[in-house]
Write a structure and sequence with these properties.
Blueprint lengths: L4 H4 L7 H36 L6 E6 L11 H19 L2 H10 L16 H11 L18 H12 L1 E5 L5 E6 L1
Antiparallel strand pairs: 1-3, 2-3
Helix pairs in contact: 4-6
Length: 180
Amino acid sequence: GAMTPAASRSTGDMSFEETLRHVSLFWKRNARVILTSALLCGIGAGGASFFIEDRFRSSIHLLVELPASSPLADEQTNQSAQDAFVEGQIFILRSADVLRSVVESLSLAEREFFQEQPGLLEPVIDQVKSALGLTSESGGEALPEGLRVDPETAHAIRVLRKNLGARRQGDSNVIRVDVS
């Protein structure tokens, strides 16, 4: 009993030539399925690219500071005042008045992305919402009653608000504003 080199190898060790032969056999057996799947995925991705809208994201960091106060005020009061001031600035950035001025100065209501484009099911959804007593406003938060704007501008403000993110960075005085 002398052992041959092939017999001394364990069943898990294959030579490079054997591995290539197995890969080649795998491709020959499954070529039709692999190529069909790749073609269908390519067609699906190409078709989806026509329906996906272009979106861009921009960010800015703002440093806000509480106006100078009395030097005799204690530090803890100053920190709570600083926190309230930063949160107030975030609220102002998202306010309808500020967003209206952005919409009007950039003429956003005239851009397609900010215009209301009801889908095929929109009338049905509106009827169901009105039957259930739900509001039909999209975008979450309603605009204040005193804000006098035309419906196109109001819709553009809601779209801008939905695509605007403003949040404090940790416990700092920095606000990160993101717009899509």
